[in-house]
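A protein record in our archive is deliberately plain, so that people and models can read it alike. The tokens are whole numbers drawn from a learned vocabulary of local backbone shapes. For reference, a complete record is included directly beneath this paragraph.
>
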Amino acid sequence: MNKKGHVLNAILLALGLGVILTVDPRSFEPTMDSAFLLAQKIGQLSLPVVLGALFPDVDTAFGKHRKTLHNLPVLVIFLAFPIVFDNLQFVWIGVATHYVLDMVGSKRGIALFYPLSPQEYDLPTGVATSSKHADAVTVVVTVAELGVLAGVHYFVFSLDVSLADAAASFTAVV
């Protein structure tokens, strides 16, 4: 996907995650307070998710695009950063969803295991970034990503806690 697609994905993710993290689907009664909390959560998520979604394409300025910053070791760094330093909480979501969009939404994949392997991985579902269908594919992929994130949030661990707390509670269960 191109920058426009990644920004569209990130904005839709911030909106959707704001709803997922704010609204309890079992007992939601809209109020002015809930609308304010929702707007506040969307504002909190927007900048980190958009920055994370754009970060992997920094490799267009150096290195090899879709290799240097489009791989699992870089994602692990973004997952570990909030655990170690207790900031950049939601940036990893932008980075991870950037990868998903590049693998599922476009014809060219990403080198998940770079620098160990330059092999690019993708799914046969994508379209060319210049396609008139690129925005529609971005929206479909984003809805699927939000479904996965909602499942994680409701059934695995809360996405609204720090990753350090989530890691601690996960290891306590195991």
